[in-house]
Give the backbone structure.
Amino acid sequence: MPLNVVVCLKQIPNPDLQFQITPDRKDIKRDALNYKLNGADEYALEEAVRLKEKSGGRVVALTAGPKRTEQMLREALAKGADEVVRIAFDEAAAYDVGKVPRFLAAAIRTMPHDLVLTGVQSDDLVNSATGGLVAGLLGLPHASVVTRVEVKGNGLEVACELEGGLQRLYSIALPAVLTIQFGANTPRYAPLPAIMKAARQPIKELSPAARSQSVGNSDLTRMATVGLHSSGMMCEPSPTSSPAPAPRSSSRTTRRWRNTRPMGTVRRRAPSLRARTPASSSWPIRPKVTTWRPPSPVRWTSR
């Protein structure tokens, strides 16, 4: 079954370099930094290309970043991607964990997608939140820390890594969002002819202002109401399911963690457990303490 795969990529500063902090201590100095493709996203890109080689379809590489990310996108073209899209977003210290997923989700809506792949985490911020937030905004099932992906009929069979080296198999319907774990495959090297061909291919550019208009409060509400299935997948609540419970009132007398005693009363200290025990009871039993003394040495005397 041919799949339209969208793989989300991120460009990060090379972690092998030595960083310097800016004077305001809010970011690192980015003037003389070298950038590279995020480590986990390399495995996601390789998994997308392998799925295309096995089942057919197309691979679209998507990123949100400044002009310098075009080098990363051309590298994705050389490794097997069919199309690359860049969302113009130039904010060096982008610490808002929800901003970039909103841009990505709005862009994915405009393109055909059967499967969305991301890396399990980024090497610079290590939030591990982009894949789950994109799935919530799109209302798609989601599986994290995926180590193996196989096409089974009209869906996928994925293996997710658990603690202690264990794995759990899931059957997930399409379209879906997966976050690929480190070591799920062996990323390939781009051959020289493919690199030269990728240098001439165009890069589609989107404006974040236009894309963010399609992501409103309704999408954030949907993301908040997405439930967690018993199998571990994120899924939309069914129409027959019970409505969400009403939020707790902010009144001081109804909140459980607030003080419910009337004003002016003195809080009495609860009696100890010993005081509530009847006097006739033998509990608690105090153990009898004995002191061990070594035996006196035997003295031999001669008569």
